[in-house]
Amino acid sequence: MSIYNVVVLCLITAPVTLVIGSQQDATFAFVALAIIFCSFLSMALIFVPKIIELVRRPRERADVRSLMDTITSKEEEERHQRLLAENEDLKKQ
């Protein structure tokens, strides 16, 4: 989607730049604003849906995060127990 955004803005910016090419300050300002607008629009297309989703369902995201933390800590606990058992076996040798 961002690629299409850049292509459309290039198709608009290039002809306008050629038309106002004799005015260097206007050309520079127009190209600079086109680049800034293109970057802003691309970032908005990427992050606005994510922010809307977080605002719309904050509770579900917190539940998923806490569930993932619980799963991770169980795995870490099992690994820790195995390492302790292996350590005890090595000490006995």
UniProtKB/TrEMBL annotation:
Residues 74-93 are annotated as: Disordered. GO terms for molecular function: G protein-coupled GABA receptor activity. Its main location: membrane. Keywords: G-protein coupled receptor, Glycoprotein, Membrane, Receptor, Signal, Transducer, Transmembrane, Transmembrane helix. It is a multi-pass membrane protein. It comes from the Eukaryota. Residues 1-70 form the G-protein coupled receptors family 3 profile domain. Residues 1-21 form the signal peptide. Coiled coil: none annotated. One of its GO terms (biological process) is gamma-aminobutyric acid signaling pathway. The chain crosses the membrane at residues 31-52. It is found in: Membrane. GO terms for cellular component: G protein-coupled receptor heterodimeric complex. PANTHER family: GABA-B RECEPTOR, GAMMA-AMINOBUTYRIC ACID TYPE B RECEPTOR SUBUNIT 1. This is Putative metabotropic gamma-aminobutyric acid receptor.
